[in-house]
Automatic annotation (TrEMBL):
Keyword Ribosomal protein in annotation: no
Example of a GO biological process term: regulation of proteasome assembly
The protein's enzyme class: hydrolase
UniProt superkingdom: Eukaryota
Keyword flag Lipid metabolism: no
UniProt cross-references to Pfam families, sorted A to Z: NIF, ubiquitin
Reaction it catalyzes: O-phospho-L-seryl-[protein] + H2O = L-seryl-[protein] + phosphate; O-phospho-L-threonyl-[protein] + H2O = L-threonyl-[protein] + phosphate
Domain annotation FCP1 homology: ranges: 134-294
Subcellular location field: Nucleus
Species of the source: Aquatica leii
This enzyme's EC code(s): 3.1.3.16
Protein name, as recorded: Ubiquitin-like domain-containing CTD phosphatase 1
Length: 313
């Protein structure tokens, strides 16, 4: 009797459970994914499905992949109707979604004991997997992924089409003065996959120090916005004493992520609708100039109003 293989497909913010037999091939998997999601097999890119370090061909049997029960596969792919509309400019799309301006009375939460205790717990319990060691005399740059470096929702045939323009040039320039950390509000598995997809992991011109995922975040409560998860830079500062508010800058498309450290955060324009904007988006190119300005002219990053960063470029 053939053994069953249960697989989870993660696509467009949803998860789909697929059940096949171990003797079914990757081709059968793609057909099952098509039935569940509507994405045709030739449009599917199964990011973390590997056989001997490479993407398996369609004839490869599932038993050869040795998948664990409930194995999650991150998929990229577009529906035909979305592709047909790819050159249609959406209307009435706000520049920023799910964000807010930090009001003065809310900034005080950064010093509340209950949140400082949560940060201390992350410092003690959260294990960082070092990719590269910190360098003496460097500042610290903390970067978000989704909508900051990568448009993870728009229509595309390959991941590179969703990469923000000038990404590698930006990281290369930043690496001259900054150690670089990637912090995303997702799981570590998906962070690793996205960095590989974008060609960041093993780029010859720069190195990422480490990745942080959602488990390094803490939840805070504000009277106006309720409970939300945020990225406290204190988690990094508590583990690496050479970094502090004086030499750290965080880029994120959502301001609430750095509500614990409002003076060290810079909200950049979100990179959405890559198919329409990748020819004109120069945000990272301009931010490279700002990072160079900070490194050369500022001894305390928290003393600068980063909302006016464009005036320094």
């Amino acid at each position: 009797m053939e053994s069953l293989v249960k697989i989870i497909i993660k696509w467009s913010g949803k998860e789909y459970e697929i059940e096949l037999t171990e003797n079914d091939a990757v081709r059968d998997l793609k057909e099952a994914v098509h039935k569940s999601t509507g994405v045709r097999p030739e449009r599917q890119k199964l990011l973390n499905l590997k056989f001997k370090g490479k993407n398996p061909d369609d004839d490869c049997k599932l038993c050869q992949l040795k998948l664990k029960p409930g194995f999650k596969i991150m998929m990229m792919g577009s529906l035909e109707e979305d592709i047909a509309e790819v050159n249609t400019t959406p209307v009435d799309i706000p520049e920023v979604l799910n964000d807010f301006d930090i009001e003065e009375e809310e900034v005080a939460i950064e010093n509340r004991e209950v949140y400082l205790a949560k940060i201390d717990k992350r410092i003690k319990d959260y294990e960082i997997k070092m990719l590269n060691q910190p360098r003496d005399g460097k500042n610290l740059l903390v970067l978000d992924i989704d909508y900051t470096l990568f448009d993870h929702r728009s229509v595309a045939e390959t991941g590179l089409e969703l990469m923000r323009p000038y990404l590698h040039e930006f990281l290369t320039a930043a690496y001259e003065d900054y150690d670089i950390v990637i912090w995303s509000a997702t799981g570590m598995k998906w962070i690793d996959e996205k960095m590989k997809l974008l060609g960041v992991t093993n780029h010859p011109n720069y190195k990422i120090m480490f990745h942080l995922d959602s488990l390094a975040m803490i939840s805070v409560h504000t009277p106006k916005y309720g409970v939300m998860d945020v990225k406290p830079l204190g988690v990094i500062w508590g583990k690496f004493k050479q970094y502090s508010s004086k030499n750290t800058i965080m880029f994120d498309d959502i301001r609430r992520n750095f509500i614990m450290n409002p003076k060290n955060g810079l909200r950049i324009r979100p990179f959405r609708q890559a198919h329409l904007n990748r020819a004109t988006d120069k945000e990272l190119l301009n931010l490279s100039k700002y990072l160079k300005y900070l490194a050369k002219n500022c001894s305390d990053f928290a003393s600068i109003n980063h909302r006016h960063w464009e005036s320094k470029c």
